[in-house]
């Protein structure tokens, strides 16, 4: 699956009217995405990078690369002086900012304009007007765009926040005026949560955007998050490119998106699109932009914010319209009129995007994970699959940047077709070396509520009220998993007896055809009988027979099998001589142990490891930095009291006491860098 192709004639024409060289003021997958379109258009590219990104994929893809500082973002990707120097050094005529970093920074756009360098995005007036949530709301009201009730000024302190929240009525949303991407946002249901939300939101806003101003508005309970893609030129023309459904979120950050939405009818779609265009015209917008709305159960919609940049989830719009949005942004920056009319914009098929993160989905639906990708294989051999990534095998996922691995996009003529393709793509996606969120993504797309389109921004906490636990096996799936583990164990045993296809020792007795095994799963023991005929295995479990067949290539990362006539793709993540096997099955990793009948009878004599008492210790659930420590040795703490705050990927997380106790010792201080599992505080 590719974007609308660029013909040879178009390329020749592009060379006559476009830029010669563009600098991409970003990193990772979005920098790679921009470079790909530039290459199609015959434009040379310049990458900027921090010192830890010197071997990154976007650096290798670009024609030139310039180091702009050390790893911390404020010293590199947010370092305007260094980026301006890179522009002068390379002679770049234009800058594409991607998303995040300086993409919505009006000062950066002003500095570029002063140097005669084109900013591939809107002008500074639109950035300022839409980047300030308070001002944007006032402009939206004037443009007759539906808005959420709330306070239209800047909140001075926590006590004023409590007063305003009381006047609006709980629940309220506290959010950064200059923010986006879910950072600097908190929902408060009472006065205490308002005070705490004000503190965390202002700190996150200052850290992420250099602006700690906050606003408060009514929180629309149980809404959908639906956004409209707009495209406008410098000649007063503007289009809406249909909607994207972005309701599946955790911590106000999107996880799965799709286009179009299952919820909108043509009239509502048109009304939202026309209001989005009205807002764009009100600020004389020129470029690609996104107007975000909250939509309630009665299809009433309210303006949330406008992102004056290319959106993370833009690929699904490209899939259903055939437009290359990066190419359109470059054309608009050169001053050309839009090539299309509103009637030209189609909805062709259905596209779904899963954001693949280096995160542990079992911790708050995704706390960051770091490490090196020891093995990495994208499912690009599948038809109608697109992967936007900026990493490769051997790449490091560090604490300094967003933990996104890629955006996995599937396309189909129907939603059902796109969903089935996403299942297949997730099963065939090989990621080793870091914890990832594929188990959560796969569970979301097969959940009956998601499949039926019954979703809201509360989907994850409603479906998993006690947190995500992985795939819950049915009786039939459990038998499939046990049978696969047993067949894999036997296949490995048989392979170890051979050398270059022959038996290692000529006097080895004839190959066995039947085995009695014991398989342990979730502390349950299962006796299995296994028989083999070529590459086909018949496994008997509790009187039921399971047929498992495949090529059994034990060196491959993927294990394509046919189980009782159904095609399944599993992954063997671990296999040891002691019979331990970890299989990724239906997206979730399962730990099993396969033993011979004799070994199983002896294993009961082995001592078991006593689990650690976690109620008296506090360990860091993720890698990050310590922002604040609220206790000292000797202090008495109540259950649920904040002990310290850890920041990871610009998000602050409050660590609390699991019980009422006295603090025995503190093992961290503000400013420390901690790893996952590091001891922070001990309680008596």
TrEMBL record:
**Positions of the ATP-grasp domain:** 137-334
Instruction: Give every Lipoyl-binding domain span.
Output: 605-684
Q: In which pathway does it act?
A: Metabolic intermediate metabolism; propanoyl-CoA degradation; succinyl-CoA from propanoyl-CoA: step 1/3
Name a biological process GO annotation. Answer: lipid catabolic process
List keywords of the entry alphabetically: Acetylation, ATP-binding, Biotin, Ligase, Lipid degradation, Lipid metabolism, Magnesium, Manganese, Metal-binding, Mitochondrion, Nucleotide-binding, Phosphoprotein, Transit peptide
Q: Which Pfam families match?
A: Biotin_carb_C, Biotin_carb_N, Biotin_lipoyl, CPSase_L_D2, PCC_BT
Could you give one GO CC term from the UniProt record? mitochondrial matrix
Which segments constitute the Biotin carboxylation domain? 18-465
Q: Where in the cell is it found?
A: Mitochondrion matrix
- Which reaction is this enzyme known to catalyze? butanoyl-CoA + hydrogencarbonate + ATP = (2S)-ethylmalonyl-CoA + ADP + phosphate + H(+); propanoyl-CoA + hydrogencarbonate + ATP = (S)-methylmalonyl-CoA + ADP + phosphate + H(+)
According to its UniProt record, the EC number is 6.4.1.3
- Known cofactor(s): biotin
Matching PANTHER family: CARBOXYLASE:PYRUVATE/ACETYL-COA/PROPIONYL-COA CARBOXYLASE, METHYLCROTONOYL-COA CARBOXYLASE SUBUNIT ALPHA, MITOCHONDRIAL-RELATED
Name this protein carries in UniProt: Propionyl-CoA carboxylase alpha chain, mitochondrial
State the species of origin: Cyprinus carpio carpio
Q: What is the lineage of its organism?
A: Eukaryota, Metazoa, Chordata, Craniata, Vertebrata
């Amino acid at each position: 699956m590719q974007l609308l192709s660029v013909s040879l004639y178009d390329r020749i024409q592009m060379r006559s009217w476009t830029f010669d060289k563009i600098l991409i003021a970003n990193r990772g997958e979005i920098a790679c995405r921009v470079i790909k379109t530039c290459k199609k258009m015959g434009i040379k590219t310049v990458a900027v990078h921090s010192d830890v990104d010197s071997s990154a994929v976007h650096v290798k893809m670009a024609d030139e690369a310039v180091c702009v500082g050390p790893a911390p973002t404020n010293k590199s990707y947010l370092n305007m002086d260094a980026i301006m120097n890179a522009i002068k050094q390379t002679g770049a005529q234009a800058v594409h900012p991607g998303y995040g970093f300086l993409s919505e920074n009006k000062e950066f756009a002003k500095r570029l304009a002063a140097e005669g360098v084109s900013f591939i995005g809107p002008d500074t007036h639109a950035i300022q007007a839409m980047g300030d949530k308070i001002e944007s709301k006032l402009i939206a009201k004037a443009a007759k765009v539906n808005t959420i009730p709330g306070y239209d000024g800047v909140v001075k302190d926590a006590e004023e926040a409590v007063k305003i929240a009381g006047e609006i009525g709980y629940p309220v949303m506290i959010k950064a005026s200059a923010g986006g991407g879910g950072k600097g946002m908190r929902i408060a249901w009472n006065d205490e949560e308002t005070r705490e939300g004000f503190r965390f939101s202002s700190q996150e806003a200052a850290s992420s955007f250099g602006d700690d101003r906050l606003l408060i508005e009514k929180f629309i309970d149980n809404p959908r998050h639906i956004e409209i893609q707009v495209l406008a030129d410098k000649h007063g023309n503007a289009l809406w490119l249909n909607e994207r459904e972005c309701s599946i979120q955790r911590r106000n950050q999107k996880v799965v998106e799709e286009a179009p939405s299952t919820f909108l009818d043509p009239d509502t779609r048109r009304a939202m699109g026309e209001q989005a265009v009205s807002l764009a015209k009100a600020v004389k917008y020129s470029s690609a932009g996104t107007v975000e709305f909250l939509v309630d159960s009665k299809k009433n919609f309210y303006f949330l914010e406008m992102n004056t940049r290319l959106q993370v989830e833009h690929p699904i719009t490209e899939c259903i319209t055939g437009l290359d949005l990066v190419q359109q942004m470059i054309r608009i920056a050169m001053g050309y009129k839009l090539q299309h009319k509103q009637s030209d914009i189609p909805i062709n098929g259905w596209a779904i995007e899963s954001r693949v993160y280096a995160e542990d989905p079992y911790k708050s639906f995704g706390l960051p994970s770091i490490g090196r990708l020891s093995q990495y294989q994208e499912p690009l051999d599948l038809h109608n699959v697109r992967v936007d990534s900026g990493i490769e095998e051997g790449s490091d996922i560090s604490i300094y940047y967003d933990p996104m691995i890629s955006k996995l996009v599937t396309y189909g003529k129907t939603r059902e077709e796109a969903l089935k393709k996403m299942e297949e793509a997730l099963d065939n996606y090989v990621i080793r070396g870091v914890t990832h969120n594929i188990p959560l993504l796969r569970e979301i797309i097969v959940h009956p509520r998601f499949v039926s389109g019954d979703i809201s921004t509360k989907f994850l906490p409603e479906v998993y009220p006690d947190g995500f636990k992985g795939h819950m096996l049915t009786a039939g799936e459990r038998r499939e998993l046990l049978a696969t583990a047993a067949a894999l164990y036997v296949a490995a045993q048989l392979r170890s007896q051979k050398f270059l296809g022959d038996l290692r020792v000529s006097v080895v007795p004839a190959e066995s055809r039947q085995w009695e095994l014991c398989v342990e799963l979730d502390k349950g023991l299962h006796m299995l009988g296994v028989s083999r005929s070529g590459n086909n295995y018949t496994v008997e479990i509790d009187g039921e027979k399971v047929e498992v067949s495949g090529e059994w290539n034990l060196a491959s990362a993927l294990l394509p099998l046919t189980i009782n006539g159904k095609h399944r793709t599993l992954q063997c993540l671990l296999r040891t001589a002691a019979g331990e096997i970890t299989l990724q099955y239906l997206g979730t990793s399962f730990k099993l142990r396969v033993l011979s009948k004799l070994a199983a009878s002896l294993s009961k004599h082995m001592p078991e490891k006593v689990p650690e008492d976690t109620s008296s210790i506090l360990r860091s659930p993720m890698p990050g930095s310590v922002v604040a420590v609220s206790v000292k040795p000797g202090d008495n703490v109540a259950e649920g009291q904040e002990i310290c705050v850890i920041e990871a990927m610009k998000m602050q997380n409050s660590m609390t006491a699991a019980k009422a106790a006295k603090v025995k010792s503190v093992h961290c201080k503000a400013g420390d860098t901690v790893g996952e599992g590091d001891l922070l505080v001990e309680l008596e």
